[in-house]
Automatic annotation (TrEMBL):
Protein name from the UniProt record: Vacuolar protein sorting-associated protein 54
Entry's family note: Belongs to the VPS54 family.
The entry's keywords: Coiled coil, Golgi apparatus, Protein transport, Transport
Keyword Heme: no
Region described as Disordered: spans on this chain: 35-68
Organism: Geodia barretti (Barrett's horny sponge)
Pfam families, A to Z: Vps54_N
GO biological process: Golgi to vacuole transport; protein transport; retrograde transport, endosome to Golgi
Annotated Gene Ontology cellular component terms: cytosol; GARP complex
Domain Vacuolar protein sorting-associated protein 54 N-terminal: 73-193
Gene Ontology molecular function terms on file: syntaxin binding
UniProt cross-references to InterPro entries, sorted A to Z: Vps54 (IPR039745), VPS54_N (IPR019515)
Subcellular localization(s) per the UniProt record: Golgi apparatus, trans-Golgi network
Amino acid sequence: MFDLSSVPRLFMQADFCLKDLATFQQVLPLQELGPGRRTKKAARSGERGKKNVTSPSPNTPSTPPVSSKLLHEKLSQYLDVIEVHLAHQIAQRSDLFFSTLSSQQELQDHIMSVRQNVVELRMCLRDLDRKLTHKNLELMRLCSQTHRNSQVLQKLKLISTVQQTQPTIQLLLSTSDFVGAIDLITTTQDVLHDELRGVHSLRSVVFLITLSS
């Protein structure tokens, strides 16, 4: 009784629309109703429709004359068949549908949990970066700065020593210690041309040592 094949395929078409005159006349064949059941307006509409509608396909089975009551019962039967079929399909897929909804909710909860874990992990990494990496980088920077300061201090001590060589050379020359004076001059010249090369404040010292030599 509720076999879906009993419903004409016309009702299953995706472009089914009663606004289409040909479709309307196939669903409600007014020309096939009894004369007493048709109104004058319907008759006039049927006459106008005949002019604009192409003749049905030869393959389309002819429908025997039916009364409006019988047509109503037939359409109601089609509706019942479709409703039962839909209810049966929904019942078959309801478990899968609710299972899908449940899985979707679980997946959404899992995504929210993972998102929260990612946020917490980023905060933890940020704290570790601030506590470990930044401190290590700061320590390296301080060590490098200390090393540079130590080098500058050594240069300053060396400059101070070189600046004191001229009086020492004069003292050695005044005591006729020419060998010691020559050794000090040679050593000072080596330092000026090597470790203190380019120090402009020592130009006068270089000039005096050159004169002494």
